[in-house]
Amino acid sequence: MTKPTIKDVAKIANVSISTVSRVMNAPESVIESKRSKVLDAIEKLKYKPNALARGLIYKKTNTLAVVIPDIRNPYYADIIRGMEDASKKLGYNLIICNTDRDKKRLFSYLNNFYERQVDGILYTSDPVFPDYYNEIKRLRIPVMLVSTHSMEYELPSVKIDDEQAAFDAVKFLIDSGHRKIGMIGFDLSDSIAGQTRYHGFIRALRENDLDECKENIVYVNGWSYETPDAAAQMLAKCPDVTAIFTASDELAIGLLCYLDERGISVPDQISVIGFDNIRLSRITIPKLTTVSQPTYEIGYRSVEKLDAIIEEKEDPVLREYLPHEIVVRASTRRL
């Protein structure tokens, strides 16, 4: 048995298709007699409107696509929760897509979004390369950058000031009396979390006359907890280090495990500070001092800003920065 269509509803109610559409989307605009006939017909046929068909009529499907590089990363949990809550409030559904930072996979998703006529894309964490930007422009889908930004292209974004946040983390260690400080960070090819957090680290050292620590940096690729090689390199490079700043909580947790396995006490021998304030940072041993990102608010605000673009409302802030803070727990101590 074929599914009933909007034409079937219109025929039974003896009204036009446009009248049926108005009853479903703006019922107050239809007189009571016709509205009752349409509602009766919908009930009789058990008609369920097709979202794609409605999108063809109204140029809106009430669907947003979320592009995430690695859904396993706990950093995204509260971001997605914020997106979900804001979407529910504003009447959108979310499609969540994991790219694994694979270009072909990303482009396949983008074309799928176009075919599904999504209203907008929430592009999370990764840089926007020229070919990505050109594809987005070609498809003419509104895009919001989440926990990332682009200084090259006029794309709206919501994030924290990563450079300042890293500076504040290192300055906290310096103010706690540390003078032998190291960093485990992301490769500098990562313009979002690599370069920015590196520059914050270097600026804090420079402004506090600790230039001798500038070489105490070990780089990693990815966000894994598995950081034994990086930790070993750090201790080999700076055996008298008293504090280590890591560019993510995952890296910090990996470092805590490495130090514990080798009987190095945190924070008595080495203080550790992370970045993100994921939920796991509250239950590590010892509990992790870290830079707290307002991840829920980032997700929520990104949907609000994207909705403003879709609805052609004015949003005066193109690149929006939300506040961060240092959450002090047991993994750091004063000297």
Automatic annotation (TrEMBL):
Q: State whether keyword Transcription applies.
A: yes
- Signal peptide per UniProt: none
Which InterPro entries does the record cross-reference, listed alphabetically?
Answer: HTH_LacI, LacI/GalR-like_sensor, Lambda_DNA-bd_dom_sf, Peripla_BP_I
- An example of a Pfam family matching this protein is Peripla_BP_3
List, for all copies, the residue spans of the domain called HTH lacI-type. Answer: 4-58
* Keywords associated with the record: DNA-binding, Transcription, Transcription regulation
The family database entries (Gene3D superfamilies) matched by this protein are listed as: 3.40.50.2300, lambda repressor-like DNA-binding domains
Q: Is the Transcription regulation keyword given for this protein?
A: yes
What terms describe the molecular function in GO for this protein? DNA-binding transcription factor activity; transcription cis-regulatory region binding
- This one is known as LacI family transcriptional regulator
